[in-house]
Amino acid sequence: MASISIWVAFSLFFYFIVNRIYKSHIYSSKLRKFECQEPVPKDTISRWPFGLDMLKIALEADRGKFFPLLLQRNVEQYGITYKYSIMITSSLFTVDPKNLKAILATQFDDFDLGSMRIGAFWPMLGKGIFTQDGHEWKVTRDMMRPQFNRDQMSDFEVEEKHVQNLMRAIDTRLQGDWTAEIDLQVLFFRLTMDSATEILLGQSADTQLLDLPENQTKAQGTRIDFAAEFDNALSWLSTRGRFADMYWLVSSKDFRNSCNKCNEYVDHFVQLALNRNSLARDQDKDDSTAIKKRYIYLDALAKETQDPIELRSQCLHLMLAGRDTTASLLGWLFLLFAQNPNQYQKLRNIVIENFGTYQNPLEINFLDLKNCRYLQHCLNEALRLYPLVPFNVRQANKDTTLPHGGGKDGKSKVFIPKGSIVEYSVFAMHRRKDIWGDDAEEFRPERWEGKKVGWEFLPFNGGARICIGQQFALNEAGYVTVRLLQRFDIIRDMATDSVVKHELKLTNSSANGVKVKLHTSTV
After folding, report:
1. How far apart are CA 85 and CA 205, in angstroms?
2. Superkingdom of this entry's organism (predicted)?
């Protein structure tokens, strides 16, 4: 019996060795075929077996809320393109603009989102633009693109209503001309949830109003619950995403309940949209009701498909994009303003000159916001320092290459086998001093004056998968910024922790919040 066990163990060991030799031979052959070289890191990447030290450090960084800073440190230590392995998974990491251009544009068809992301996000989001590849993704994008036309993006009537609700929330904290300490980030996430639900579903969740003291009653709790369940589900999705191909280990009754409640909430509005669409087909346009004259994304989408599950999924995808991206951008921008009051004052002077005061505002439209150069510089600088998605992943669907990173000088092509993982960090790339200068980590909007950028600046991704709602997000952030600067002439930083921490869900926001005091202007 012992001899059989020894023979089996020897056979397995022999198979393992032969298999490793065979795979190494095949890999070396493909390196020569594709004329590639392996990346050479500047330092030893892992000193523990199976890369367990890398995993330990990453988990500690995640718990400590500084994971993007770890990625930046790794680039400084190992180089702008390097390979590493954790357990049995080998990945290539890069912050080289030439490689990102290849992944996202020139070799776009060689890479997919991969089954890991689709599986991790499916319970909450279902089938949609963030979980689709290939032909399905193209069909969805073509269906969604017309909904982001210039007229829809330039209508600030709905936005102004929710800005006024934001102001009401701030008013509850006023003590004379100054507010008490407030966390603007909380208010921004409520504002964008409310505007997103109104534009997408036809009815606002009204989280800003319902959180006011006079409105906190049990009868009004259901819409507040949607925002809480949405946030809870996103937290679980983020954790599942970090477990890569082991995402299925991360699940719970709490997660499933939140997914079900979000689905039920949106399903109600999907049915209303389908009913309106059915009525519209039976009536002349002159018989349309008042609510039909107001743009509702779900109504427009219901003309393209009547599948209630698809409608629900697309709305949840867009709610994630429209709510979290804009709220995070506003949060980072005002955190930077609190840290840099001179730039706040400079922009405020320009805002007053171009858009009037809060009490006597001039018209604010799409073109004027876009042409307000210093406002755009501030938005770009916030997106450079704190990109909304600091880390992303693709999976090769065929044997392919990337143009840069191989060899000791990093100038040779890198071989990417089919099925392998490629990771990139816009956060780390946006802070490269060889690209942005020695002041790369400083908030200096003036750097954008006359500056032309390419693939080194990717705040909304790039290539075919560039965010179709980016102009909507910039418009909303710009509008809200103008209205706040019209009303408040001084911002005071009330942060107690000088170290900026990162709350990584599916977007990146400040784990410290944005705690400030604001002074009401007298003009």
Report:
1. 44
2. Eukaryota
| Residues that constitute the known binding site for heme | 467
Which residue stretches of the chain have pLDDT < 70?
Answer: 1-3, 5, 7-16, 18-25, 147, 149-154, 216-224, 280-293
Which residues have CB under 8 Å from 136's CB, separation 6+? 127
Main-chain phi, psi angles of 251, to 5 degrees? -160, 160
What does each C-alpha distance from 429 to 242, 318, 362, 387, 436 come to in angstroms? 20, 27, 39, 10, 9
Helices (H), 215-295: 221-242, 253-282, 290-293
Binding site, annotated residues: 467
Question: DSSP string of 197-233?
Answer: HHHHHSS---HHHHTSGGG--GGGHHHHHHHHHHHHH
**DSSP per-residue string spanning 352-416:** HHHHB-SSSBPP--HHHHHH-HHHHHHHHHHHHHS-SS--EEEEESSSEEEEEEEBTTS-EEEEE
How are beta strands 400-406 and 502-504 bridged, if at all? unpaired
Question: Closest Cα partner for 485 from 518, 446, 445?
Answer: 518
Structure confidence at residue 219 (pLDDT): 46
Cβ-based neighbour number of residue 289 at 10 Å? 11
Report CA-CA distances (Å) from 419 to 65, 113, 124, 416.
30, 11, 25, 8
Dihedral sign computed on CA atoms, order 158, 356, 459, 339: negative
518: helix, strand or coil? strand
CA distances from 183 to 255, 258, 319, 331 (A): 27, 25, 22, 9
What pLDDT, on a 0 to 100 scale, did the predictor assign at position 114?
84
pLDDT at 283: 61
Q: Quick one: pLDDT at residue 328?
A: 96
Judged on CB neighbours under 10 Å (0-12, 13-18, 19+), 330 is buried
Calculate helix-pair angle for 325-339, 184-201, nearest 10 degrees.
150
